[in-house]
Amino acid sequence: MAATxxxxxxxxxxxxxxxxxxxxxxxKNPKVSFPGTRFRVKCVATSQDSMxxxxxxxxRNANMAKLQAxxxxxxxxxxxxxxxxxxxxxxxISLGIGDTTEPIPEVITxxxxxxxHALSTLExxxxxxxxxxxxxxxxxxxxxxYSGLGIEEDxxxxxxxxxxxxxxxxxxxxxxVSMAVQDPSYPAYxxxxxxxxxxxxxxxxxxxxxxxEYMRCTPENGFFPDLTKIPxxxxxxxxxxxxxxxxxxxxxQLTQLVQFAKKNGSIIVYDSAxxxxxxxxxxxxxxxxxxxxxxxxxxxxFSKYAGFTGVRLGWTxxxxxxxxxxxxxxxxxxxRIVCTCFNGASNIAQAGGLACLSPExxxxxxGVIGFYKENTSIIMDTFNSxxxxxxxxxxxxxVWVRFPGRSSWDVFAEILEKTHVVTTPGSxxxxxxxxxxxxxxxxxxxxxxxxxxxxxxxxK
Amino acid sequence: MAATxxxxxxxxxxxxxxxxxxxxxxxKNPKVSFPGTRFRVKCVATSQDSMxxxxxxxxRNANMAKLQAxxxxxxxxxxxxxxxxxxxxxxxISLGIGDTTEPIPEVITxxxxxxxHALSTLExxxxxxxxxxxxxxxxxxxxxxYSGLGIEEDxxxxxxxxxxxxxxxxxxxxxxVSMAVQDPSYPAYxxxxxxxxxxxxxxxxxxxxxxxEYMRCTPENGFFPDLTKIPxxxxxxxxxxxxxxxxxxxxxQLTQLVQFAKKNGSIIVYDSAxxxxxxxxxxxxxxxxxxxxxxxxxxxxFSKYAGFTGVRLGWTxxxxxxxxxxxxxxxxxxxRIVCTCFNGASNIAQAGGLACLSPExxxxxxGVIGFYKENTSIIMDTFNSxxxxxxxxxxxxxVWVRFPGRSSWDVFAEILEKTHVVTTPGSxxxxxxxxxxxxxxxxxxxxxxxxxxxxxxxxK
Lengths: 460, 460
Known about the structure:
homodimer, alpha/beta, Aspartate Aminotransferase, domain 1, Aspartate Aminotransferase, domain 2, 2 domains, seven-stranded mixed sheet, four-stranded antiparallel sheet, globular, pyridoxal phosphate (chains A, B), pyridoxal phosphate binding (chains A, B), LL-diaminopimelate aminotransferase, chloroplastic-like (chains A, B)
């Protein structure tokens, strides 16, 4: 899986080129010339073919070089495709990358279609929106998810998704901070930290990067780290309900976490992208914990609630009470990053977000979430019946299955080879995930049932 | 304009909080509990009110602290709003931030509406797309803009806009590179460079950041820098047609630029977001220049072609021939950033992009561009008739007007105060813009005509 220095057909470059002949512009004539195919005259290139490829003198970013292999999910997609090549007739079922499969409720897509059509009218057209998101969307996110929690509309930044916001948060923090993550955890936290230069080299034996505190979360500690043994870091990434373990932290645990951050002067980046999957009394937002506004940021997403993985809409809450050590508000720097490095979420997606948060939209989202939670039960029942130790599931669309003493990638490969079902190897989420497999509940019902039949066949 | 250490209502924080009472989950019942308002019980917060606000111990990122004031365009929006407060009845016309105003042609919005509706069907639903963009979109961008130039489909990365891609490119380059920009230029290049830590402090007297090479572009040098006097840098940002000067580089000039980069082993980041506005024989793409694939990246956008400033769709070309000094392909690192820090452009926006590049869509885009170019002519004629030296306009939607010996911000304020027209002060684009005003041609015809009447009144 190590990165290699070649790209398909890249090794021997030739500088082919062509020149356009252009029609001239007439300001009275709306037909403007452009680089289309019609006016093109292909010329013979100045030959610069050579067996030795040209290299610039620009040094490769040493942080990029630290990254191991590809980002996890494209790597899984690659293995899935390789499997399909090997078994072209196999009915491959993907319970791997956590991608939603069920159609978006019509109350939501109709609103997006309506907004699309409106963009063709003078009254309905809109260009650049506020980088922070449209005011009604910010307001409705606040009202729906943070009512009574002291979060104000201007604390909420609408985005194209939590994953993208994680990097924007890392841009705010910069290189000179230390960070902690749950182990296992969603790989974007660690990888973006490496990219920003917050970490040391990857230590192969430990399967960890230097200068990251891996907070081990296991069945033995109820998937909540023993904070008395965790050294202080500047930033603490914490995802609940957790991806991949599917466990969600209790109010007592989150109160401990906030107190830990406050004692250490740390900033928690709390990922609540699965909060609506919580069935019990566990908090849906870190801001339910007293004092959290002074130590926490929360990032979340419509992806897993409304099937917006392709539509792209999320948000991040940076309370104005959160300050750097010099008293400068973190929200001001985040706002600067959002304005400079981003240009707002698509206005059509934002229309979808508004519809999601209407009474009908909320009801429809609850229906979708309920469907996936039924899938979760089916998967949990299956592995339970086979005698596995099964975790997660109750408050999240992920089932975390233990395969004691086995390598996650081996189990992943075994399941793929023998059942044509794609899962995710636990070790892809950090060394603490070794020996586990994450099974995603995102799938059509018949696929989930069929996958479970095959699991029963394999592990009976 | 210096940043201050306060946010509205931020100084005195109180940790209000509330606790939810949750309904319990039943896997057979699709009604899932969620953080809505219905189940909320507001509690009295643990009081942590204090006159001394809590601060974390996390140091503020020193690079963020280097940034001067706000990003240019939000700052202009702020001044526009302040003006509106002062003159609530004024008919303010915005020829400032370069935001498109004309409706999106229906052939394009229909395709987006259709895709939206399809997301509610089993067959039409799609979740996560490839982070690099949908294959047909990549292919059609290649065919439309790069046919015969040796750019392949997999060299093209579809994105949510060129501005966002600029930061992603900076993430690839990291902190240890030096960079050059045209002066004046679109401020995202410099600001993203500061954020990544490539620069020194801001030098107030010079109005420049340390460790950035400002390549002065003036009427005297035909808005193309004298490359014999420019020291080598790792990265060269180059925008043509240029924002803000509206000038576009000739084939000879771009050949010089590519040769300069090649001699120095530099990487050019070529911003061609206005290429379709070119009326004459000037190149639409840096890849028309022989050898450019080994030294250049190109970033572009549908924003100014199809009115997609709010829809968000762009692309970046990283040829596989482009290598770092160690021979590692730049495209591989860019791909890693795209996969780790981004999740693809909205699938609905991508459906719009496909429609833009259909024969009818291209014709429709040419119509929109032609309309804006007529606006440009009207603005140029106006300032010419008033005896100003006027630049740009021919190949771009921007008119660059000289006000010799005057401060750009003073002229901006004078025009706003006396005509209620918002322009952009040239110095906002770098010290080389001092003494100029950028007038954007994005506007409804009657507004452009009215603005020009007011200009004639003011400067007759």
